[in-house]
Amino acid sequence: MMNAHANLALAALAFPAHMPNSKSSHIRSRRTRRPLLPLTMAAHPPIRTNIGMSTHGSASGGGEQAGISSTDRFRMIDFHHVEFWCADAASAAARFSFGLGVPLAAESGLSTGNTAHASHLLHSRSGSLALLFSAPYAQGDAVTASVPSFDADAARRFTADHGLAVRAMAVRVPDAGEAFRTSVDAGARPSFAPAELGHGFELAEVQLYGDVVLRFVSHPDDTAIPFLPGFGSVPSSGATPDYGLTRFDHIVGDVPHLAPVAAYIAGFTGFHEFSRFTADQVGTAESSLNVVVLANNSENVLLTVVEPVHGTKRRSQVQTYLDHHGGPGVQHLAMASNDVLGTLRKIRGRSTMGGFELLPPPPASYYDDVRRRAGDVLSEAQIKGCQELGVRVDKDDHGGVVLQIFTKAAGDRPTLLLEFIQRIGCMDKDENGQEYQRGGCGGFGQGNVTELFKSIEDYEKSLDASARLAA
Amino acid sequence: MMNAHANLALAALAFPAHMPNSKSSHIRSRRTRRPLLPLTMAAHPPIRTNIGMSTHGSASGGGEQAGISSTDRFRMIDFHHVEFWCADAASAAARFSFGLGVPLAAESGLSTGNTAHASHLLHSRSGSLALLFSAPYAQGDAVTASVPSFDADAARRFTADHGLAVRAMAVRVPDAGEAFRTSVDAGARPSFAPAELGHGFELAEVQLYGDVVLRFVSHPDDTAIPFLPGFGSVPSSGATPDYGLTRFDHIVGDVPHLAPVAAYIAGFTGFHEFSRFTADQVGTAESSLNVVVLANNSENVLLTVVEPVHGTKRRSQVQTYLDHHGGPGVQHLAMASNDVLGTLRKIRGRSTMGGFELLPPPPASYYDDVRRRAGDVLSEAQIKGCQELGVRVDKDDHGGVVLQIFTKAAGDRPTLLLEFIQRIGCMDKDENGQEYQRGGCGGFGQGNVTELFKSIEDYEKSLDASARLAA
After folding, report:
1. Cβ-count burial of A369 within 10 angstroms (0-12 exposed, 13-18 middle, 19+ buried)?
2. Mean pLDDT taken over chain B
């Protein structure tokens, strides 16, 4: 029923291009996994998707284990890494390593025989979180590249256009070549044809949105290779602090028009609609946006797509992103911790010396509401911790609780942010009796979404020159 | 006598384009302030300079106080700042702030009404050291720029060409317009005509080498403006640690041919030759370079220019720089501390978590020699500290001692390095009886130069792919 519904929703994926200027900004505590409102027709006609016609989902899908959905055209095991294209990858990697407490784990460059690009990989010891930063050398031999899809000229244009930005969102799949071919057969625009990297590694890319690519990586379960062939381990990585970030929870892209992008992604992946929020549900009093969350079968790969809503009092923050980024792109990376309060205290401790700054807390009354809604799951100490750090709290219908907070802009521009998240509850057992947490536990807290986007709006107001100068 | 000599040396500034492959790599302990060897004619004829014809030196010069020299065409009060052009200035500034312990002190950008560039200023509380990092926004209004010479398209090309690199070396002068006009009259190539910034600030630029500019900044002694008009103070800066770096000691540029560049700079500034090293003096067993240090009258603004020597066993590290940087540019920034061992311990403590890595120490026997040469000035504890950290030690004829160390490459490429330096001794009194340290005290330690460049050579060997792969 859910999949049929999701398919239907995607096939007719639609948001009004202009919403009436009557946003509700109060907190809603119910997790939303279905459209709550009737959807009007989009200004952009939906792209036809192949959902429901897949013959790959059951053949290669792995989501059945979770028993949630089975529409995937090919199995996505998990997020593998995210790659930033940089002008100087060393500085960006160093700053993220320090600010987020994710150790520098592997490198590729002149010292490994790669004259095409300098790459620095951060990898958490607490989990699988992997952040790759790459930059072109002045003059390199492309055939020596460790990431074969690296394109020096494209990277130079990319950083000139976008500043600090994500080029690739990589997922691990059982067979990158198969994932690529299946995707392209189902309408994906190819970006980089499958390439064997040796040692059983394969890599391919399709376009995602803007100039961001979805990268497929496959490799043996048991490998001694650090990250990808051509990378060398960093000996000192063991000495670096790890603040407890474990993996990507979800990755969010801002686009001008949501419907065609969501339909495109769902079309070639087979992803189902995990959640959606319309302007009426998550808009603040002054601006708004529409959101769709797409998920693989096992709901551990969550891709969110957001579009601006126009005609509101303030310009949509999504439009601000699009203007300053220079088109569609990754707006935030949500990274999970098993102890997000502990992780945040460490991250905050580095804020004023080059780390990342957290958005300020909501008013104290917000946490009175948290006590009412989630006091049965969170201890008073935890709620106080959330208040101290400004963490937003929401709870879904099944008792799952989600803790979330955003940083201020990670780079120069009001574009890329980071989110830290912890999901509590929703424990299940797989067929082997192993406990696991259902993906997306606690949902995307509609109340949180409103609160989080409101906090970004407040932050953007602080960047408003006229407001600042008038103050 | 010295100035006459310096003028003569500059007028005929000359290094052989090819030196015989017979470098001496042993340590020389004597400070060198005169050419030790007869100079052969350069492959490039010297550019005629106006040294000795200046009418500005005595009119606006302030170096007379130190009584060292009086050839300056206009007074340079001190280094003012260095500006990096970046694709993402936030990451670079954050990394330098954390890695070097220099607090983020001021910013300009959207929040201050500057839509042209995002700029982050690091400024030491221990002194006057100022590092500026700037990047273009996607679409900005150039007239809102706080640094009026900022050119978004040029900045994008600059970062694409060079990666992490210095765009501007700024000196404070009594009158930026006058410095600019005097320089241009004396042969400087103009880059940015004098502009009034308000509040008594003025800024102008002439070309230095490659696409690096020499920026003149003038402002009232007593001003409440943080850095430049258009910048806002960063409130949290007081909470950030300061590791004790105080100022730029000297700034080094790598160029293909030293003679014309040194003659050009000396020609429009009136700078005298402070020191020089030829390939025979500072070459390692395998490669070499020629060095000239130029100084203003008071020898607190020291500009070093270096050229490669070809035909040696290994390619000159200067040529490596030129290839990877993509032309001439700033090769290292030497930053002073009044307690370099304490500063270095803090810098080293951040090395493995995103800071800067120091080059490894020389063999223990090196420090036996240090005991002999400088044991009368340095305590045994200090010498042990130098050994622990890998600090090189040299001593000049007047008992001045200099402690120096380099970092590994600061960014992705084997180009920009950082140097940390402490000069001990050479205390003098000015006409008011105030004690001050004579500029360049301890000299440029010819032995140190050899040692330092050898350590870079060893580091570059570690980047040599074939060496690494064969190991």
Report:
1. middle
2. 82
